[in-house]
Design goal:
The chain is of the alpha+beta class and 263 residues long. The protein contains 11 helices and 4 strands. The termini are far apart.
């Protein structure tokens, strides 16, 4: 994507990039994109409760590769950025000025997390404007404590999301989205009857099933488990296992307690 690309072009052509060229990214470009992302991001109370930890070192990336489930794109991408919900800096300032402590609570965690995601998306768009590719790492949520410990994050500072950044070595097709009627409601939430749910997911059921069935080894796994639909696949132990999600949810709760975001 060229520097002259419009926001519309960026949004309608976005793809997650998981294969990267070995080319390094100039430090000044990384700094500029991150700076502009902060400057252009909305921030609750202008308290800027966000921290970015940038990882370039090969050995440190190797450890994050392990924590993120050994996804090859982490090794290939020259830059990995972990976005953190961070009230530690603000709370230290409050302490120095004799103010009451705050933000070490659930609403603090939520506000900082939202701010971090706003900045993360700005950073992603900034890199894409420069012709780079990015991919969000959903695995951040499943290894919060381990990633936080590795990055030596202080109290009331926790990872929220991670992106890999680099020059694309692939040109994947753009993934489909649900139709707009699934997202946009006028005035109040509109009820969903069975016919509308079927209509919303009709195309996804076909394309999603076809995509996963084309992946090596997946058809055999589905057959062994008796999976007959995309919905069944998404809640199986191959994809998003509800039993594992309960375990991860409890781990996140415990970690937020440890970081003083929950009582």
């Amino acid at each position: 994507m060229s520097q002259a690309a419009s926001l519309s072009d960026l949004l309608t052509h976005h793809r997650s990039i998981r294969k990267f060229l070995p080319n390094s990214i100039p430090d000044e470009l990384v700094t500029r994109v991150c700076t502009e992302a902060i400057v252009g991001a909305s921030s609750s109370g202008n308290l800027n409760s966000v921290t970015m930890v940038i990882t370039r070192d090969r050995e440190r990336k190797e450890r994050l590769y392990q924590l993120h489930g050994e996804q090859p794109m982490i090794r290939e991408a020259p830059v990995l950025i972990t976005f953190c919900a961070d009230w530690y800096r603000t709370r230290e300032w409050l302490k120095l000025r004799g103010a009451r402590d705050n933000f070490n609570n659930l609403i603090g965690y939520l506000v900082a997390s939202f701010d971090a995601m706003i900045v993360a998306q700005n950073v992603s768009l900034g890199f894409e404007t420069e012709g780079l590719g990015i991919c969000y790492m959903g695995t951040t949520l499943f290894a919060l404590k381990e990633i936080g410990d590795f990055l030596e994050l202080p109290e009331t500072c926790v990872p929220v999301t991670t992106i890999v950044v680099g020059y694309p070595a692939e040109d994947p097709a753009k993934r489909d989205r649900l139709p707009m009627k699934a997202f946009i409601h006028d005035e109040r939430y509109q009820p969903l009857d069975r016919a509308l749910v079927d209509e919303i997911y009709e195309d996804r059921e076909i394309k999603g099933w076809t995509r996963y069935m084309s992946m090596p080894g997946v058809p055999e796994l589905m057959e062994a488990r008796g999976i007959k639909s995309l919905a069944q696949f998404y809640t199986s132990d191959i994809k998003y296992d509800p039993d594992e999600f309960k375990i991860f949810s409890e781990q996140i709760r415990v970690y937020l307690e440890e970081k003083a975001f929950l009582p």
